[in-house]
Structure formats: C-alpha cells, structure tokens
Design goal:
2 domains; 13 helices; 6-stranded mixed barrel; elongated; two-stranded antiparallel ribbon; alpha+beta; 11 strands
C-alpha cells in the first residue's frame, strides 16, 4: 500500500501545474460546500432560536400557524381551558409581531420583530431576560438583540457604555434597557424582547384576548405525553398541541418545504460537489491518457487491472485530503466576513466538518473511478 501511495504521489507531482489546478478545483468545491451548508444551518438555527430556548413542557398554537414570521392568533380562552386540565401547573403567553423602528440618527425606518412575554416567569431562557426582568416591567422598555443587523443605529454601543437609548417604535417612544442575544435571519433583520404589557402598547391593534403562542408547564412527575393527548382531545381542531421539540421541527419543516432558501442552498452544495468532481476527473483523465503507454507496460509486466485502478483512485483520495484542509480554512475565513456583513451567526461545526470531509473524499473517489475507465484501453500489445 505504501508503494502505491508513493507511486500515486509521484504521478501527481510530476507536472506541478496540473497538481495546483486540481488542488484549486478541490479547494473551491470544498469552500463552496462549506459556505452553502453553513448559511443554511445558520438560517435554521436563527429561525428556531426562540423554540430552542422555550422553558415549557407543551406549546399551544393556532391550527393555522405556519412559522414565527407569520404568526396566527389564538384565543386566550383556549389557553385558560388548558389550565383546567389535570396535571397542568401553569400557563403562559408569548406574543410576536413586527414594529416599525425609526433610526434616531438617520430617521430611516426599518421593521423589527418584537417578542412579548412575562419576563419574571422564565418562559424563554434567552440572555438578559431574567437579569432585566424588573426593568422590563417598567412602561416603554425593551431588550435589544445584539445580533441584529447594523441598520438600527448605535444602540448596542450606547447600551454597552451605560447610556440611555431612546427610539420610536410604531410612533411610540421606547427605551432600550439592556441587551439579549438571538439572531438576525432571512425573515427578520433584528429582534426585541419586552413585557406583554409593552407589547400591547406598541401593538394597539392587537387584542389582549389573543395570544400567538401558548405555553404550558406540567406538574413534576406528570406524564407530558398523556397531558398532551388529553389537551389534543379537548381542543380538537381548535388548536395544535406540541412539545417544544415538535414545535422546533414544525418550524424547520416550514423552512425546508415551503421556503425556497433551503432548496437554493442545497443546490449550491450540489453544484460545489459537481465542480470538484469535474475538475478532479479532468485532471486524472488527462494524467491517465498521458501515461497510457506506461500503464500498458505495467500490464505487460504482470500488474493486474485492479492494481492500476487503485493507483488512480489513490491519486483522487490524495487530492481530496490536500484540497480539503485549505478549502476549509478559506471557508471559515469567509464565515467571518459573512457574519460581519449580515449579522447572521455563521460558524463551523465538527459535525459539518466530518460530513464535508466524507463528501470531499467521495467526490474525488468517484472522479478517480470514472477516470480509470480509460485504463481499460491500455493494451500491453501497444508496447511492442
């Protein structure tokens, strides 16, 4: 095996420019796949950041609910009926809706998402909510998402310096009293967290008898699945009852099936794979064609076809490893550029690194397999 690796390496390095071209192709393919999958993962994470931080045993939403970006209201009377179910300890509300943010520096108006809840009840475990719970009880106060895009003015810097920051939300003067950490997404440029009362103040058209997401805590030791089944039986078609994990999957399913971005970035990954496959195939095919008489000589000397096939495939595997490392490093650098420019938290994960390594090896392996078809025409008789 070491002899074959040595010979494969010698063939790859025989013409340095071809090696550089092959490595560049693999690097570009790896980098493109990293970026596409990274943005897609960040999209899914940003879309479910609230779902992942819910501290409830069950979630109740309207049967028309599709996504957090297009919420449908649910009557609070349904939520109160859940309170009477045996095993239920307490209920809570989460209100969601956009408001118009007027940049106090430029006067430019942008839309931003607002989440209203009872901050002292701990329904959502996001940074800053419990810390600033008392301040959020005050009229016209909110927490600003530090990961929002840089279109809302110098709010983060002002808060970090301890300065008061006042802004107009839906023509109402509000004050940022602290920071939380969520994420901008393709659906929203930024987020705010405030109390239920302040949410209603900024959304005068929203009825207090309507809730967007109902939250349920069960008594300790109770079977959550049994209570979920009981609530589903009680509500029938009036509401959907899910666990937080099911609620997260519900949101992800919307983005994966109804939103085009999932398809677009998946296709981008496939294109990256195809680019790498074609580049490596062309390099290996040209190398096999150039050395065809030598392969014929090796056949005449008694080397089996499988030996020659493995020799070419090993060249592809060497290219996959050599191209994967710099391609990954370049992609991680581009992650920082993307995060700086869009405020979308894109970052590498070990799981993605392992998946893309396997994908890169498969890409180069298949290129080698296809390129070896040329070896079948290497006739020992051509030597004489």
């Amino acid at each position: 095996m070491s002899q074959q690796l040595h010979l494969a390496w010698k063939q790859l390095t025989f013409q340095r420019m071809k090696l550089v071209a092959a490595l560049a192709g693999v690097m570009v393919a790896v980098m493109l796949m990293w970026i596409q999958l990274g943005i897609l993962a960040s999209l899914y994470n940003a879309a479910t950041i609230v779902h992942q931080n819910l501290r409830a045993d069950l979630v109740i939403v309207s049967p028309l609910f599709e996504t957090m970006n297009q919420v449908k209201s649910l009557s609070t009377r349904i939520l109160y009926r859940a309170r009477g179910c045996p095993g239920v300890l307490s209920i809570g509300e989460l209100l969601i809706g956009p408001v118009e943010w007027r940049n106090p520096v430029t006067g430019e108006k942008k839309q931003i998402q607002v989440y209203g809840l009872e901050p002292e009840e701990g329904w959502v475990d996001l940074p800053g909510i419990s810390q600033y719970a008392a301040q959020l009880r005050a009229e016209n106060t909110f927490l600003f998402d530090r990961r929002s895009r840089n279109v809302f003015g110098p709010v983060v810097k002002a808060i970090e310096r301890g300065e008061p920051f006042h802004v107009e939300l839906n023509h109402r003067q509000m004050q940022a009293v602290g920071l939380t950490s969520m994420a901008a997404s393709f659906g929203q440029q930024g987020n705010l967290v405030t109390s239920r009362a302040n949410f209603l103040r900024t959304h005068p058209g929203h009825s207090p008898q309507q809730v967007h997401v109902g939250l349920v805590r069960t008594r300790q030791g109770e079977n959550v699945k049994s209570i979920q089944a009981a609530l589903r039986n009680t509500f029938g078609n009036e509401a959907l009852v899910m666990t937080p994990a099911e609620f997260t999957e519900f949101e992800l399913r919307f983005w994966k099936t109804n939103a085009p971005v999932g398809f677009i970035f998946t296709m981008g990954t496939a294109v990256g794979f195809l680019i790498g496959f074609i580049v490596v195939y062309q390099i290996l095919y040209a190398d096999v064609t150039h050395h065809l008489p030598y392969y014929a000589t090796m056949k005449a000397m008694g080397f089996a076809d499988w030996y020659l096939l493995l020799l070419v495939i090993r060249q592809g595997l060497i290219l996959s490893v050599l191209g994967y490392i710099p391609g990954s490093l370049l992609a991680i650098g581009f992650y920082q550029v993307i995060q700086y420019g869009t405020s979308i938290p894109v970052g590498p994960t070990w799981e993605r690194a392992g998946f893309l390594l396997v994908l890169t090896i498969l890409m180069c392996f298949l290129s080698g397999v296809v390129a070896t078809q040329r070896l079948r025409s290497a006739d020992p008789a051509d030597v004489f």
